[in-house]
Write a structure and sequence with these properties.
single chain; 258 residues; alpha+beta; five-stranded mixed barrel; five-stranded mixed beta sheet; 6 helices; 15 strands; 20% helix; globular
């Protein structure tokens, strides 16, 4: 995507309404200018801090990983992030765990006048929401921004690689991160784990699993309240009696229409 098109997108989407959550209210520290953009969700600050933009996942670049195939629009996502950080200084704000296993800061990046970097990447459709149970702040606001971009088919949402899948489509997507929409056919608790089944045969059809530990974060894991509900769920697709996503926190699941 040419840089002039990225600039045009930024201008057109700047008028989208602000959301209730304010990342500037989270605990934080002074950051600084960005000296290097690694990819669409990782960058370096002038003090040497490497920041992983918490709560989002941009299209991935190989970054030296042997055999890794670049995701569609990865270069465009990096270019968009470069455009957004140019000439700006950011503070770091934390909504949960502050460092990942690589030593990168897990932060929301916000300017003094309230420009929220994650929010803009989502508004432009150059990232999707990617949350964890130990970093859940502002996920509701980010999901709302993602939905606007998805409905408008901005950025990644115009590419089939990032399409919302049906439960029947997942057989060829094992080992990938997906967003899946479908109706729960049945729900049952087995040895403390809640299973949401999307077909008649739990041994082959798509399933969402919520284990006992994760279940403590959910408002209600009574099986009966989940049956016949249409949901949108996101996560890495594993192979366990058919395709499965393990939901570790409530923000992975959106009740469609509510």
């Amino acid at each position: 995507m040419p840089r002039r098109m990225i600039a045009l997108m930024i201008g057109l989407l700047a008028a989208l309404p602000a959301l209730a959550g304010d990342p500037g209210d989270l605990p934080g520290r002074v950051g600084g200018a960005v000296t290097e953009v690694v990819d669409g969700d990782t960058l370096f600050l002038e003090d040497g801090t490497e920041v992983r933009l918490v709560g989002i996942q941009a299209p991935k670049l190989p970054l030296g990983r042997a055999g890794f195939r670049k995701w569609p629009l990865a270069d465009e996502a990096k270019a968009t992030l470069e455009s957004l950080v140019a000439g700006r200084r950011f503070d770091l704000h934390f909504g949960g765990r502050r460092l990942d296993r690589h030593g990168r800061s897990l932060a929301h990046m916000v300017t003094a006048d309230g420009f929220w970097l994650q929010g803009e990447m989502l508004r432009l459709g150059m990232a999707r929401v990617y949350s964890f149970p130990d970093n859940r702040a502002l996920v509701e606001e980010m999901l709302a921004l993602e939905q606007v971009a998805r409905q408008g088919r901005y950025g990644i949402w115009s590419h089939p690689f990032y399409a919302v899948r049906s439960p029947e489509e997942l057989g060829g997507n094992i080992g990938t991160f997906q967003i899946v929409k479908g109706m729960i056919a049945d729900a049952a608790r087995v040895r403390g784990t809640l299973y949401l089944n999307f077909g008649a045969d739990w041994r082959e059809d798509f399933t969402v699993a919520i284990d006992r530990s994760a279940g403590r974060l959910f408002p209600d894991t009574t099986p009966a309240i989940w049956r016949d509900r249409t949901i949108r769920v996101r996560g890495w697709v594993r192979s366990r009696n058919g395709p499965m996503i393990e939901a570790s926190h409530p923000e992975q699941i959106e009740i469609v229409g509510e």
